[in-house]
Design a protein that fits this description.
Strand order of the largest sheet: 3-2-1-4
Structural class: alpha/beta
Order of helices and strands: HHEHEEHHHE
Radius of gyration: 14 Å
Shape: globular
Mean pLDDT: 90
Distance between the termini: 14 Å
Number of strands: 4
Helix content: 40-55%
Strand content: 15-25%
Largest sheet: 4 strands, mixed
């Protein structure tokens, strides 16, 4: 895997965007996926940086979630904003990562991301249900870095 563009096919990217759309349909929460080649710092630290760069900390209820993947480094992290972190179980993000890790190990990148999105979406739905007047505050598109 030498390039971020090779990590997923265009069809797989579309499936991930659709998984985000479906997960967000039932919640006011926001989910983003960010891919980049590598990270020179801990993946969770880089996830937090990207979270802020993408202005995910600007959601009304502070309930954004980012799934960050450093493709060449073969590392990933999940970070949730204060609103969601205050209500999910302490091991929630680790249990989500465990679900995803098995797929990544077996080369099922799309499935890893879809399962992570669905798992996060269930918690967002539970604690931040969709409400009348709710708007999609952030793009569902996969963001990509260097």
């Amino acid at each position: 895997m030498s390039k971020v563009e090779d990590f997923l096919t265009k069809a797989e990217e579309a499936e991930i965007v659709e998984a985000i759309r479906l997960a967000e349909k039932n919640t006011s929460g926001e989910i983003r996926v960010h891919l980049e080649k590598k990270t020179s710092i801990a993946p969770i630290e880089r996830a937090v940086e990207v979270f802020h760069e993408l202005q995910m900390d600007q959601t009304q209820l502070r309930n954004g979630v980012i799934i960050y993947v450093a493709v060449n480094s073969k590392q990933f992290a999940i970070y949730g904003d204060k609103g969601i972190n205050d209500v999910v179980a302490d091991d929630f993000w680790n249990s989500t990562k465990d679900i995803m890790l098995e797929h990544f190990k077996n080369g099922r990148n799309k499935q890893a991301l879809v399962d992570g999105i669905e798992h996060a979406g269930e918690q967002l739905k539970k604690y931040f249900p969709h409400y009348d007047g709710n708007t999609n505050e952030l793009s569902n598109e996969i963001s990509k870095g260097e």
